[in-house]
Design brief:
alpha/beta, 6-stranded parallel β-sheet, 270 residues
């Protein structure tokens, strides 16, 4: 049994890298829907249909537990999937909750009423679809009150990263941070609400300033997954052989993944 990591493209490799380091004895299947990336400009029905198709393929590959390492899928599809689609013997989890738990300093499963937290002004950088869903604000409202969230839709950043054009991606990040700061001049914290964005973490931090705490998801998701598997040992697998699947051109995706992670990654056709 393997744990599945799903993303619309290459961004979820930041999560895969973190979880394999945190859980070296766990096998993983990574699925990149590169043929349909990016998801961030698609409508919610389209994202739902693409995500469910990918999850079914990962079930076929032996994954009973799947992490949607795609914020757009987590925002636009996960709740609908959990309400009416996922079988009782399977689990599909998103990436928002570990981030919000860290921001609000609440432990997993803390279902106490929302309360005031130390951070009052939060910048959210995400894809247009994630911003439009307001899923981050909805999940945050379950846990905290009195937090002002200003969201910035970062169109084009994922495309630039997927194309390997990090110079363009850096310029776009700085432009989006400038736009955010015109709306919220002094954020205390910033959320990188897309798993592609940790690849640009230093650029976000530089543009925001050293006094802004920047939260990205990879390590937070890894810790949350380790905790989940400790509490649900039946979901653990054996072995360390990872499988990489893509709907895109396997050679091209392999080359770009190898460049991102700085180690050889070989994808197979999904």
């Amino acid at each position: 049994m393997a744990v599945g990591i799903f993303d619309s493209g290459l961004g979820g490799l930041t999560v895969l890298d973190a979880v394999t380091k945190r859980l070296p004895d766990q096998a993983f299947v990574y699925f990149g829907d590169n043929a349909h990336a990016p998801y961030g400009v698609r409508d919610s029905d389209d994202v739902y249909n693409l995500t469910t198709a990918a999850v079914e393929r990962m079930w076929d590959a032996g994954c009973d537990l799947i992490i949607l390492a795609c914020n757009t899928a987590s925002a636009a599809a996960l709740r609908r999937m959990q309400e009416s689609w996922i079988p009782t013997d399977k689990r599909v989890l998103g990436v928002f909750v570990p981030l919000i738990e860290a921001l609000t300093e609440r432990s997993w499963g803390d279902n106490s009423p929302p309360r005031e937290v130390g951070v009052k002004h939060v910048a959210l950088f995400a894809t247009p679809a994630t911003v439009a869903s307001r899923a981050f604000q909805r999940e945050l409202a379950f846990r905290a009150i009195g937090v002002d969230v200003e969201a910035q839709a970062c169109g084009g950043v994922v495309d630039a990263i997927e194309d390997g054009d990090l110079i363009l991606a850096e310029a776009m990040v700085r432009s989006h941070v400038d736009a955010l700061k015109r709306k919220m001049p002094d954020p205390e914290a910033a959320i990188l609400g897309c798993t592609h964005y940790p690849l640009m973490h230093d650029t976000f931090q530089s543009a925001l300033g050293a006094d802004v705490k920047v939260y990205s998801q990879a390590n937070l998701v890894a810790e949350s997954l380790a905790d989940y598997l400790e509490r649900h040992p039946a979901m653990k697998g054996q072995g360390t052989e990872n499988l990489f699947l893509t709907t895109g051109d396997a050679r091209t995706v392999s080359d770009r993944a190898t460049q991102f992670l700085r180690r050889q990654i070989t994808f197979e056709a999904a």
